[in-house]
Specification:
The chain has about 170 residues and is an alpha+beta fold. The chain contains five helices and seven strands. The protein has one domain: 3-Layer(aba) Sandwich (Aminopeptidase). The protein binds coenzyme A.
Length: about 170
């Protein structure tokens, strides 16, 4: 598995993030508005700034390759502070890095952060049922399928199922 680093977002990440949002292959399975481009540069800048300010309930980190290339982002959100769990999200925006283990490596880093630094008990995620690549990587990491969320997302004119996966602190190798 390649080595990745997670770092805090910086405002200069906007350029890459905006360019990735223009790529329909990247956004295909993401919850983005049904317009193109899904975000303006101003909206992207505002989003990054609220992440930096920590005012939107997200802990979002930029993913860097071993050569310090900015290749995507990974986040934790929907924190349930009573039950110590949160939802994970991941995107490798730079497609040149797809299918080589970078996504899995970044998820593992974030899981360690969530379990060790934030003391979470469980981290869960929702994935479109037909996002086979993502599902394969989640299973390899050790996520367990919890169930099908029926017609859970309205995507390009139809309701589609999502699968909910989770991993417990005790299960991360
Ligand atoms: C999903 C995503 C994060 C995975 O990251 P990645 O670095 O490409 O994935 P990895 O290389 O770590 O693992 C993917 C696995 O799926 C396999 N795979 C690749 N293409 C595939 C396909 N079309 N169908 C099924 N499996 C596929 C890979 O071979 C790999 O398995 P392996 O390690 O056994 O070879 C990344 O592709 C991405 O950002 N996609 C767009 C955004 C997205 O869908 N995010 C998730 C939303 S829930």
């Amino acid at each position: 598995m390649p080595k990745v680093k997670l770092r805090d977002l910086i405002i200069n990440d906007v350029e890459d993030r905006y360019n990735w949002s223009m790529d329909r292959e990247v956004t295909q399975f993401l919850s983005v508005p049904e317009k193109f481009p899904p975000f303006t540069k101003e909206e992207t800048t505002k989003w990054i700034q609220t992440c930096i300010d920590g005012t939107n309930g997200y802990i979002q980190k930029s993913i860097l390759s071993e050569y310090n290339d900015h290749i995507g982002w990974v986040d934790l959100k929907n924190f349930d502070k009573v039950n110590n769990n949160a939802e994970l999200g991941i995107t490798i925006g730079n497609k040149a890095y797809w299918g080589q283990g970078y996504g899995s490596a970044a998820i593992k880093e974030m899981l360690h952060y969530g379990f060790e630094k934030l003391n979470l008990h469980k981290i869960w995620l929702r994935v479109d049922r037909d996002n086979e690549k993502a599902i394969k990587s989640y299973k390899k990491i050790g996520f367990i399928e919890e169930g099908i969320l029926r017609e859970d997302r309205f995507r390009r004119g139809e309701y589609i199922d999502r699968v909910r996966f989770s991993i417990l602190k005790s299960e991360l190798s």
